[in-house]
Amino acid sequence: AIPDVWHLALAGTAVLLVTKILLVAPMVRWAGVDTLASWRVALGDYRTAVPSLVEFRDAYLGFERENTEIGKVPYGLTDQRFARAYYELGRLFFQKQDWKECRYWLTKAGSAGDCRGDASYQYWMGLCHLNLGASEEARACFLREMELDPSEPGPLYNMACAYARQENPRQAVLWLKKALDAYPPFGDVARR
């Protein structure tokens, strides 16, 4: 017969293991769901994609909080398995115009995956920075977006906006002229 102390130790270990499984299981499950959720997001069907994304976010943040000690780097799960989930969460919060959350998740996506070479990623990240008052970081993203997709006129206009927010009218007008040369309908947007 096993002494009572061993029974308590085994029971404690079992409780700890079950807690970890319940917390991490939604994140592991996400790896198989992310393609479906991505398609739903891409098709604008947030009603069905968002629950999976929010479940993932809540589980991830809970795990991170549980495994973070004050003054130490979080254990975290910033890896490629979850890069698409981070990316989709960034897109979700972009749609909600929650710029701080958007930047948090897109930064994780950039650290975990290869999305930094994606023009759309640079656009979203640039607008996050711009709306959070980080104009220099926003300009760096818009310049990178121009490198990745030179035919897209949007970054030219966004550069004008970034310079305007920094109260640099000379550069703002220069970039606005470039934007208008590349895509004349921006004139209607600029007049508003």
Short description:
The chain has helices spanning 4-42, 46-66, 83-95, 99-112, 119-131, 135-148, 154-165, 169-182, 186-191. With 192 residues, it is mainly alpha-helical.
Your description of this structure?
The longest helix is centred in the N-terminal third of the chain and has 39 residues, at 4-42. It contains nine helices and no strands. 32% of the residues are buried. The chain has 192 residues and is mostly helical.
Assign a percent range to the helix content: over 70%
Terminal-residue CA separation: 81 Å
Q: Report the major sheet.
A: none
What structural class results from the helix and strand content? mainly alpha
> Count the strands?
0
Number of H/I helices: 9
Net shape: elongated
Percentage of β-strand residues:
under 5%
The chain-level mean pLDDT equals: 75
Radius of gyration: 22 Å
Low-pLDDT parts are: 23-33
User: What sequence of helices (H) and strands (E) makes up the elements?
Assistant: HHHHHHHHH
